[in-house]
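Q: Structure tokens for this one, please.
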Amino acid sequence: GTNNSLSVNISRRQDLLNGNIYATLPSINFSVGQFYPFRSEQKKRGLNFSSSDDKPFYELISGNYSARFLNTVSKISQTRDEKQGISHSFSTNISPKFKYISISPYFSVIQNIYKSRFEIVNDKPTEINEISQVAYYSTGVSASTRLYGMLNAPISGFGGIRHTMMPSLTYSFQPDFSEEKFGYFQHYKDSLGRSQVFNKFQNGIYGGAPSGKSQALGFNIGNVFDMKTIGSDSARTEKKYQLLNFNASLSYNMAAEKFKLSDLYLSYRT
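A: Here is the predicted structure, written as tokens:
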């Protein structure tokens, strides 16, 4: 009766030819599905739910949370390697409607916790055994709407075809976490005097923070074609079929030094 879920998994794989062992001991996942912290208990459980048009804006604020713990052990050629990590992720958004347009600002943050990190000491990566954490975030806002078109014809058994077009425009921002002020990357000069950047958490089980600033404007358009048929029985039973689902997306990263325009991504399903 809750919006929470918990899973625990243990696995072991062993190669009988060379003796290599790969094990997960264990993998624990906990998640809280979409929740609305400022709604009454009755509304949080989905009861007495109505459209967003008649709700105050604060009741439209929603959140998602998940936590993961992973411990892996591998033994390859008599060399044992063990990695552990905890990862938290939280996101929040709000989707009020202004006439026919939905505006959705969002904020997402991820925190990874490790028992150690690596730093460059005497030009060599050296493990520092102390609890370390890396946290990074992204934010943005999107605007979307829906447009409908209908095709009807005087054909027996044919109820019509509906075309639903869903254009959206998204602005997203993520800072460059490789900058020294964040402390997740080490800036140093190698033995030849060249400037280098080293990711202290690149060997972590969940990885480190992303590098490179992103300030992108994305455009996506979805298209769904549905057909309805009407049965010849006395009840004139209606059936709906999805004929085609077609999507296209493109983005432009204003912060990139080159290749600012992304590839055009197309997908379809029928």
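A few notes: The longest helix spans residues 41-44. The chain has one helix and 16 strands.
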